[in-house]
Write a structure and sequence with these properties.
14 strands, 4-stranded antiparallel beta sheet, 6-stranded mixed beta sheet, GEVED domain-containing protein, signal, alpha+beta, GEVED
């Protein structure tokens, strides 16, 4: 009976808890200067990739379209790591000589200083993409969303707040330390830790668990099948009865099984 309940909980109920417990809210960033309006033709990036950021945009903006600046930070954000090299990839329209610059507001003061460049070059490039590898300075603010600003410009400029013949795009990044999970802290890939100190089972759902479900087609398929099972079985048992069974009989057993790697 315990094995059946454990299997049901781990494989059927966990996706439900994952949906209920993982709450994604848009980052709120420190305000930074907004580039002045330009009615010139602008040429910007076609795609920006960093961590879970994968944003595509139109590189070309017509005169008067007011697309010289776009703040994507509320919808495109990611974690970056302070103890490893990070890579930003910016895709460009080929054969269009462009200057590319990028900053991270490491001190979160709303100003992009010279020491906050992750790319600072006045040399134009004609390639279809550029890969920017960077490391996080030790004095950078961590565990808070910071503004990443990307400038793609027709001519070299030192300003992070102008793009007369180009485009500026903003994103959000959060600096975290990448450490191996402990036995009590959940598992980074495909496993969930249970905190039994709470009145009800509280699941420590990692962001990358959700992302793994999204990226791995086999897991997505399994996830959908389990959701269907949950919709059938949960009405039969009822939430209150199921929670009572889990809390009184099998919760500790499930935790032991999870930590032992048997489920």
């Amino acid at each position: 009976m315990k094995n059946i309940l454990c299997t049901f909980f781990c494989l059927v109920m966990l996706p439900t808890y994952a949906q209920e417990k993982v709450v994604y809210s848009s980052p709120i960033l420190k305000e930074a200067c907004i580039p002045p309006y330009s009615d010139a033709i602008s040429y910007g990036p076609t795609k920006v990739e960093l961590g879970s950021i994968n944003n595509t945009s139109n590189y070309y903006s017509e005169i008067g379209s007011n697309n010289f600046y776009t703040d994507y930070s509320s919808t495109s954000f990611t974690d970056i790591y302070d103890n490893q090299e990070n890579t930003l990839i910016i895709s460009l329209e080929p054969n269009k000589n462009r200057v590319v610059r990028a900053w991270i507001d490491y001190d979160n003061n709303g100003v992009f200083s010279d020491n906050e460049f992750i790319r600072n070059s006045s040399n134009g490039i004609n390639e279809s993409s550029i890969s920017i590898s960077f490391n996080i300075p030790s004095n950078a603010i961590k565990n808070t969303y910071l503004r990443l600003r990307i400038l793609v410009e027709f001519i070299a400029t030192e300003s992070h707040c102008s793009g007369i013949y180009g485009e500026i795009e903003d994103y959000a990044v959060r600096i975290v330390s990448k450490t191996p999970p402990s036995s009590n802290d959940g598992f980074s890939i495909g496993r969930v830790g249970i905190n039994t100190d709470q009145p009800q089972a509280t699941l420590d759902i990692r962001e990358n668990l959700y992302q793994n479900f999204q990226k791995d087609k086999h897991k997505v398929f399994l996830f959908r099948i389990l959701q269907l099972l949950k919709e059938i079985l949960l009405p039969m048992l009822g939430q209150e009865r199921l929670y009572t069974i889990l809390k009184t009989n099998v919760l500790k057993y499930i935790r032991v099984m999870l930590q032992a790697g048997n489920v």
